[in-house]
Design brief:
The complex is a heterodimer of chains A (702) and B (321).
Chain A: H1 20-25, E1 40-46, E2 52-58, H2 60-63, E3 68-73, H3 75-82, E4 88-89, E5 95-101, H4 104-113, E6 115-120, H5 127-131, E7 151-153, H6 156-161, E8 165-173, E9 176-177, E10 185-191, E11 194-199, H7 204-215, E12 222-225, H8 240-253, E13 257-260, H9 263-269, E14 272-273, E15 276-284, E16 290-300, E17 327-335, H10 350-367, H11 372-379, H12 383-396, H13 398-401, E18 412-423, E19 432-437, E20 443-446, H14 456-468, E21 475-478, H15 495-518, H16 528-533, E22 540-545, E23 555-566, E24 572-582, H17 589-608, E25 639-645, H18 663-675, H19 686-692
Parallel strand pairs in A: 1-13, 11-12, 16-17, 20-21, 24-25
Antiparallel strand pairs in A: 1-5, 2-4, 2-6, 3-5, 7-17, 8-15, 9-14, 10-11, 10-13, 15-16, 18-23, 19-20, 19-22, 23-24
Chain B: E1 5-8, H1 12-21, E2 24-27, H2 31-38, E3 46-49, E4 59-61, E5 65-69, H3 74-79, H4 81-86, H5 88-95, H6 100-105, H7 108-113, H8 137-140, H9 161-168, E6 172-177, E7 180-185, H10 186-195, E8 208-215, E9 220-226, E10 237-246, E11 249-258, H11 268-274, H12 281-292, H13 304-318
Parallel strand pairs in B: 1-3, 2-3
Antiparallel strand pairs in B: 4-5, 5-8, 6-7, 6-8, 9-10, 10-11
Helix pairs in contact in B: 5-9, 11-12, 12-13
The chains are: A alpha+beta (702), B alpha+beta (321).
């Protein structure tokens, strides 16, 4: 069994992305760059009603638009029609039909020409409205609220009476929309020979299996290709309704169809992180140890379920998150609303859990007059995070910077805060790999995995180069194709821990076999080409697989934030983030740091900017664009200092998710520290800051 | 968007004629128009490119008045060292417009004539008052970005950065109307939107902004905006101020606010109050009080009152240099 090499040259060092030139020059091909002959544009007609019953729908006029080659019903509508059930539309943006045509303009005109007669139905889009007894029901046969299922351990009521201090807070988080830079979409070609799909996906296998089963095509006749893709964050698993629509359009048109969602589509129906409304009561004993915890929480995943994404899209956050409290009572209520469905979103359930719990931690620390870092060291059961807090506090200069809440002088106040995270991860044991060593010394490493943009190709090249004594640039990496040996979906921060052991095993075996076959005792490095030449005219092809003991799961992290808050305008500037994270054996420290930077920037957006705004009058998403759905831009990004704990003995662990979890909590705590009052609702806008400061009355409806 | 034809006009008469005869629309930078087209908020049959019209792309630095041609880009204003020296408030307002890419093509005329950014107006599936519907949704719904002052039922504010800065500089906007040059103050250019819920300004079909004339009488100016984000974001509130300061004493002072009213909001009583004053904390606070005293906040935009108050004070104090 292979083991990670000692004193590595590339592993745990910085390697620039091997595909950087392709990305910078534009030669990297994404789903919408696939160019099969005769391809057509595809577009989707979406519900413009938050709730309505379709009485009739006609494609006749749409089909007459010059250039239009196909018009199909969306799969869910077709299904409902087949089962003669009500053709009810349940949210603004729900898929109704798809069109394919030779120009974008033809498609746009066809969408306008589809004739649809509906009866509009009452709707409800806001969580608090949906809870009301007389609220319109989103699903006729079930209530909008899930039944109460309180979970209790210990004796909570008694425990609160034993506490030296108790705080109560109402911490709320917004619905965060999935907005990867590349929208969802595919180019699909469905011919009598089968389906080829160039997909923007986190799981080529999930698209492969999803298309085969939805369209009743043999799995052997479906091929999915993802050479490059522009981010998924949990929302891009399976073909999705848009993928199935594209395939059906392709079959009907007898031509390939490129159907990429518009940014508008993306905001409505491509998934989101559910909202949470967390009422927390928490108490600690005289010595500062947490003793009692109570959470009453509700939130919405829209119409419920998931739309083509991964699982785990509920508002039921883990509580009391990373802390152990002997007496707890937790109840979650899922609220159904006439809004787009939730789907897995980078560390599902964790960022809102962290935001609320870490806010409560600081509120209690302040009440008990304990330094927030000390309070965590006293209560955090993780030995690794304890180390990280100490390292981070030192780097950040916590002791020198910490002031009593609200005591920063002047109009623009400075504050600091911190928060911790946890994540599981782990590797997929079924991961397979293949290496082909050519007589000319070139080598291809092949895995049916996909690169979300995180550096998967580079990680494969780094490990292969390490094992074979070559440079990463000398490794040709072939990924993103279901014709390659099975690779895992990229979700749950599992990719690196799946592929790294597999590549190590595959390349170690390839080296061994090359040495055996050619009689070169050590074929690495300078002997490589000599050995390969001895292969004559037959390349060497070797399979490998994931091996036990080279990866593990369970990563933590802590982050520290420093902010300026203008108390007259309410504007927040994040000045500094120090992030201390562990992920076992680090492969490429450069792509690793990039992952953490990205996680922090996303977490900052969650803290300060991102919020789906539903209009309760019209039922539409009011901000389906980047003008009013606000994302962090480079000028908002603070100085980020990443501190990595390298723990090779633990093997490889993923980092994608834990890095985004604690950022919003740390920023919110820093803002509370600056102001001396808490803004307990994210995103923390100027309006909320000025309201918390008592300069503006709170709106009746949040 | 609906399909359209495209033509380039080489004379002002033919531009006007092409628009009138073909359900047309002028296009210069196109930033605003493209958004309207894509959402089917405007569906002209012909786009008339006005970028080839003569004489509209220059900044002329006269001794008493500078003129900015309607086709001068926002980036040109941002990057012109003479503008930065003579009208720093205008330069700062230009620098805060959109992103670099937007500023590179955005024109002075287009920035002034842009339509409402109200998210109900811009939404393809809400039929609000501004689009001829019965209801100002914002008044009853999500109004965090909306007006504190209005003369009608629509509460969408004017968001042109340049309009705010030009108002403080008491600029004249020259509009070509029926072949005749019609000068308007900034207040006059937007009065239509103050009165009429469906109007974005006082321009009539076929009207074209051709230049802006800015008097050089004021020797100091400043502009500050507050936005959610640090770049590429609309102002929540913006403020421009300009005056002549001699020996610390203000004359010809003007203050204008953006994003809180359908017009760049100016209160003459406050300007008069500032005349002859010296800039100190008390004076600027009093001016801010006067400007904001009749503010009518809605459910979600009350924060704009203290925000505007702070910006007025800071912008005025910034005039001291």
């Amino acid at each position: 069994m292979p083991s990670w090499p000692a004193n590595p040259k590339y592993i745990s060092h910085e390697t620039r992305r091997i595909d950087a030139p392709a990305k910078v020059t534009g030669s990297a091909r994404y789903a919408s760059d696939a160019n099969p002959g005769g391809w057509l544009y595809g577009m989707i007609l979406r519900s413009k009603w938050p709730a309505a019953k379709i009485n009739s729908i006609s494609f006749e006029k749409a089909r007459q638009i010059p250039g239009i080659k196909a018009v199909v019903l969306a799969p869910a509508i077709e299904e409902r029609q087949k089962n003669s059930s009500d053709l009810t539309l349940r949210y603004y943006g729900e898929e109704i039909a798809g069109v394919a045509g030779s120009t974008k303009q033809a498609c746009l005109d066809a969408l306008k020409a589809i004739e649809i007669d509906v009866t509009e139905l009452p709707f409800v889009v806001l969580e608090d409205d949906a809870k009301a007894d007389d609220a319109p029901k989103v699903w006729a046969d079930q209530p909008n609220t899930s039944p109460a299922k309180p979970k209790e351990s210990g004796d909570v009521d008694k425990a609160f009476s034993d506490c030296a201090a108790v705080i109560e807070g109402f911490y709320t988080t917004s619905v965060q929309i999935h907005h990867p830079m590349e929208t969802h979409g595919n180019t699909v070609s469905w011919t009598p020979d089968g389906i080829t799909c160039w997909a923007s996906t986190q799981g080529i296998t999930s698209v492969h299996d999803g298309l085969a089963s939805a369209l009743k095509v043999d799995q052997s006749k479906v091929r999915v290709i993802t050479e490059y893709m522009g981010g998924g964050f949990g929302a891009k698993f399976g073909p999705g309704p848009h993928g199935i629509i594209a395939a059906k359009l392709s079959r009907e048109a007898n031509a390939p169809v490129r159907l990429m969602l518009t940014r508008f589509d993306q905001a409505l129906a491509a998934g989101n992180r559910p909202s949470t409304f967390q009422k927390i009561k928490m108490g600690a004993k005289e010595d500062g140890t947490l003793h009692a915890f109570q959470l009453e929480n509700y939130g919405t995943s829209g119409i419920g379920g998931t739309s083509g994404g991964g699982g785990g899209a509920g508002s039921d956050v883990p509580a009391p998150y990373i802390y152990k409290v002997p007496n707890t009572r937790v109840n979650h209520t899922a609220i159904t609303t006439n809004a787009g469905p939730a789907t897995a979103f980078r560390a599902p359930r964790n960022p809102p859990a962290s935001f609320a719990m870490e806010s409560a931690m600081d509120d209690l620390a302040v009440k008990m007059n304990i330094d927030p870092v000390e309070f965590r060291l006293k209560n955090d059961p993780s030995e690794i995070r304890q180390r990280e807090y100490k390292i981070g506090a030192e780097k950040f200069g916590w002791k020198a910077k910490y002031k009593k809440p609200g005591s920063s002088p002047g109009v623009v106040k400075t504050g600091i805060g911190c928060a911790g995270s946890t994540w599981g991860g782990g590797g997929n044991r079924r991961t397979r790999g293949e290496a082909q060593v050519n007589p000319d010394g070139t080598i291809e490493v092949r895995l049916g995995v996909q690169d979300l943009g995180t550096g998967t190709r580079t990680v494969i090249a780094v490990i292969a180069a390490e094992v074979l004594g070559l440079t990463p640039e000398q490794i040709t990496v072939r990924i993103g194709d279901t014709n390659l040996p099975f690779g895992p979906g990229s979700g749950g921060s599992t990719t690196c821990a799946s592929i790294s052991p597999t590549v190590l095993d595959t390349c170690t075996k390839a080296l061994q076999q090359l040495q055996t076959q050619t009689g070169v005792p050590d074929a690495r490095g300078e002997n490589w080409f000599k050995a390969c030449k001895k292969l004559g005219v037959t390349p060497l092809v070797v399979q490998g697989q994931w091996q036990e003991g080279l990866s593990s799961s369970g990563a933590g992290g802590v982050q520290f934030a420093e902010v300026d808050v203008d108390t007259e305008t309410g504007l927040v500037t994040v000045k500094k983030i120090v992030a201390v994270h562990d992920c076992g054996l680090m492969i490429d420290t450069l792509t690793l740091e990039s992952q953490i930077n990205g996680g922090i920037i996303m977490g900052m957006g969650y803290a300060l900017y991102e919020e789906r705004v539903m209009d309760d009058l019209s039922g539409v998403v009011l901000n389906p664009n980047f003008e009013t759905y606000k994302l962090s831009t480079i000028s908002d990004v603070p100085d980020i200092e990443v501190v990595l704990l390298n723990m090779p003995e633990r093997g490889v662990i993923g980092i994608g998710e834990p890095a985004t979890i604690p950022t919003a909590a740390a920023i919110a705590n820093a803002i509370a520290n600056a102001l001396g009052v808490r803004v307990s609702s994210i995103p923390i806008t100027p309006a909320k800051v000025l309201t918390a400061l008592g300069k503006v009355p709170a709106p009746a409806k949040a | 968007m609906k399909a359209f034809q495209y033509a380039t006009a080489h004379s002002f008469d033919s531009a006007r004629q092409l628009v009138a005869d073909n359900n047309g629309a002028y296009i210069a930078g196109g930033n605003d128009l493209l958004g309207l087209l894509k959402e089917y908020l405007a569906s002209p049959d012909l786009l008339v490119n006005i970028k080839a019209l003569p004489g509209l792309n220059k900044i002329d630095r006269g001794s008493n008045t500078w003129t900015f041609g309607a086709l001068v880009t926002v980036a040109e204003i941002e990057n012109d060292p003479h503008v930065a020296k003579t009208f720093p408030g205008l330069q700062q307002a230009a620098a805060e417009v959109g992103s670099q890419q937007i500023r590179n093509v955005a024109s002075v005329g287009g920035n002034l004539a842009q339509h409402s950014r109200c998210w109900y107006f811009r939404h393809r599936d809400t039929h609000c008052l501004k689009k001829g519907g019965d209801l100002c949704y914002a008044r009853h719904g999500e109004n965090r970005y909306h007006s504190l002052f209005t003369g009608n039922t629509c509460i969408s504010p004017v968001v042109s950065n340049l309009a705010t800065a030009f108002a403080a500089l008491d600029a004249k906007v020259v509009v070509l109307r029926d072949g005749k040059e019609t000068p308007m103050t900034i207040a006059e250019l937007y009065q239509g939107a103050w009165e009429n819920p469906q109007a974005h300004n006082s321009l009539k079909p076929g009207d074209m902004i051709v230049r802006v004339e800015v008097p050089t009488i004021r020797n100091v100016s400043a502009y500050i905006q507050a936005s959610d984000k640090h770049a590429f974001d609309w102002a929540l509130v913006s403020c421009a101020a300009a005056a002549t300061i001699v020996d610390g004493e203000l004359s010809q002072p003007r203050v204008a606010l953006g994003c809180i009213s359908p017009v760049p909001y100016q209160v003459e009583a406050a300007n008069e109050f500032l005349q002859g004053k010296r800039l100190d904390d008390e004076t600027v606070a009093k001016a801010a009080d006067m400007i904001l005293k009749d503010a009518q906040p809605h459910e979600h935009n009350g924060y704009k009152v203290p925000m505007a108050h702070a910006l007025i004070r800071r912008t005025l104090l910034k005039l001291k240099g």
